[in-house]
Structure formats: structure tokens, C-alpha cells
Amino acid sequence: MVIELGSVVEGKVTRITNFGAFVELEGGKSGLVHISEVADKYVDDINEFLEEGQTVQARVVNIDANGKIALSLKKMKTQAADSEKQPRAPKGKFSGRGDFKQNRHTSASFEDKLSKFLKDSDERLTDLKRKTDSKRGGRGSRRSD
């Protein structure tokens, strides 16, 4: 079996350390389940969740240049929970006539969103400068002695 990024693999826990658990995979390869990838909650002691000799299913989350395989048990649980959820309706407004209108912001491209953000930011900065200048006496107004 070829081990690819995102694939689900099954293996046997061969060694547990304070930073994670090593899992022996098919083909004599091994992967590491880091302690942060064991459960959705904080894991103080990995032995509460895993034991040597246990068979686990994990998702491959990274394969580095040296061939080290990073595994995640947490990603398996979250994906299973996501597949059980009901599909959501698209965001937008219901007109009451049986048709659904999409929000105009959901279909905007990144460039459109960025240009809108920059425009809003420039306007806010200009307003801020005006308010600050008026409090200081602003725009070249000097006191006459």
C-alpha cells in the first residue's frame, strides 16, 4: 500500500514516549502520532489514550523530505464527526417566494475583497487624520502671539 498525504492507514503502536506514539505501518514503515494529535482535548499523559500493541487507524498529515510520516488520530475523529453532520444550506437570504438569493459577498474573488478592504481602510485612516488634526489645531493653524 502506498502511503499518501491525507490517506487513512492502520498500524500497531510499537512505542510510547512523552511526546507521542510510534506506529508501525504496512511495508515496515513507521509513523509518529504527536501528543497534540491524539485527542481533541489537552493530553497530559498519552498512556491514558494509547497503549503499546494497540491497533489504531490514523490519517497521514505530513510526509517530510526524509520520509518521516506524521499521523493524526484527532483528524480521524473530527472527519468522522463532520461526515455525520447534516449538510448545511448555502448562506444567503430566503425571499419567501421559493427562491434563494446568495449573499453577494460569498461569490466575490479575493482581489475584490482585498480592494474593498483597502478602500475602507484608507477612508478610516483619512477620517482619523482629520479628527486628530482638528484636535491639535490642524492644517497649519498657528497661534498668534
What features would you describe in this structure?
The chain has 145 residues and is of the alpha+beta class. 26% of the residues lie in helices and 26% in strands. The strands form two sheets. Strands 1-2-3-5-4 form a five-stranded mixed β-barrel. Strands 6-7 form a two-stranded antiparallel sheet. The termini are far apart. The mean pLDDT is 78.
In short:
By secondary structure, the chain is an alpha+beta fold. Helix content is 26%, strand content 26%. The protein has two helices and seven strands, in the order βββββαββα.
| Total of DSSP H or I helical runs spanning 4+ residues | 2
Number of beta strands: 7
Give a short account of the largest sheet. 5 strands, mixed, barrel
Distance between the termini: 88 Å
Rough outline: elongated
What percentage of amino acids are in beta strands? Answer: 25-35%
**pLDDT < 50 runs, ≥5 residues:** none
- SS-derived structural category: alpha+beta
The residue fraction in helices comes out at 25-40%
String of helices and strands = EEEEEHEEH
Features:
about 140 residues, alpha+beta, 5-stranded mixed beta barrel, two-stranded antiparallel sheet, 2 helices, 7 strands
Protein topology:
Layout: E1 8-16, E2 20-24, E3 30-34, E4 55-63, E5 69-72, H1 74-84, E6 92-94, E7 100-102, H2 110-136
Parallel strand pairs: 3-5
Antiparallel strand pairs: 1-2, 1-4, 2-3, 4-5, 6-7
